[in-house]
Amino acid sequence: MLRMAADLWIVSDPIGPADAVAVLGGGIEDRPFAAAAYYRQGLVKRVLLSNTQPGPAALLGILMSDVAANRAVLLKLGVPEHDIETFGSGLSNTHEEVLALHEWAKRTGARSIIVPTEIFAARRVRWTLRHEFGENFAIRVPALDPPNYRRDDWWRNEQGTIAFQNEVMKYLYYNLKY
Question: What is the CATH number that goes with domain 12-148?
């Protein structure tokens, strides 16, 4: 029954050629890896990084910010610096990231973007992107299995259970607020 609940919740778009791949904040363990793979496969020529608000530890220089960590992963995986670009400034949630990504797309004339995200977040992220970008823009949101659980065993891991609960609530919140 829990596997069926996840199957009904999880949405995932097939990937294909796009103008860019966008790495939203968080997800350092899977999102930049997927972006680098799409780049190496020749599906995109630009990798975009959300310029999120750095946390207190990053401001003190103890930890890397999300954008710095994502950039480091991409560089380590062979994406050239000149093909990595940031968008937005001080972004603090998915809605702000999507608005900033939309501005980037309008400014550059981009018509298609891949936005990889984790399995339970994919529904909310895709809804938000399509809500802001409209129907005349190709948005692809492939759902990634996080490193600690998969779509077929998520209930066996506390992080999976919490992620599923949180995303159901976030999805409802986003639909009501935006």
Answer: 3.40.50.620
Q: At what angle do helices 158-177 and 122-133 cross, to 10 degrees?
A: 20
CA distance 143 to 19: 19
Helix/strand/coil for 65: coil
Distance (Å, rounded) from C-alpha 118 to C-alpha 27? 8
Placement of tokens 């609960």 in the chain = 165
pTM above 0.85, yes or no: yes
Structure tokens belonging to residue 5 = 């609940």
Q: At what angle do helices 94-108 and 122-133 cross, to 10 degrees?
A: 40
- Domain residue ranges in the chain: 12-148
Q: What is the DSSP letter of 53?
A: P
Q: What is the pLDDT confidence band of residue 5, given thresholds at 50, 70 and 90?
A: confident
What pLDDT score does 52 carry?
96
